Amino acid sequence: MTFLNSLLAQSPADYGYTFAVWTLDRLAEHLERETGIGLSIGRLQVWLERLGYVYRRPKRDLRHRQDPQARAEMQVWLEEIKKTPLPELSNSSLWTKQP
Fold first, then answer.
1. What is the predicted pLDDT for the residue at 4?
2. For a FRET experiment, which of 37, 58, 62, 94 has its CA 20 to 30 Å from that of 24?
């Protein structure tokens, strides 16, 4: 279990992989390659749960690719839109009964 903890504490890139996130399949393959011990996906999942790991999808954040000036301009525009009152709605319903 210590090996598994130390493995998960590092990025897959630290081991020379091109992917950024460990999946159960990738983790099982790597463990078998490193230790010679093959674990089923189900058994690996049990061990991860015992170690306190939970499955979550990675969050994608593309702010580093955004133009800071355009982002600031859009933020100002968004704040202005929030201040604009909504148009008054009519009291008539869009739902009608057929005769």
1. 86
2. 62
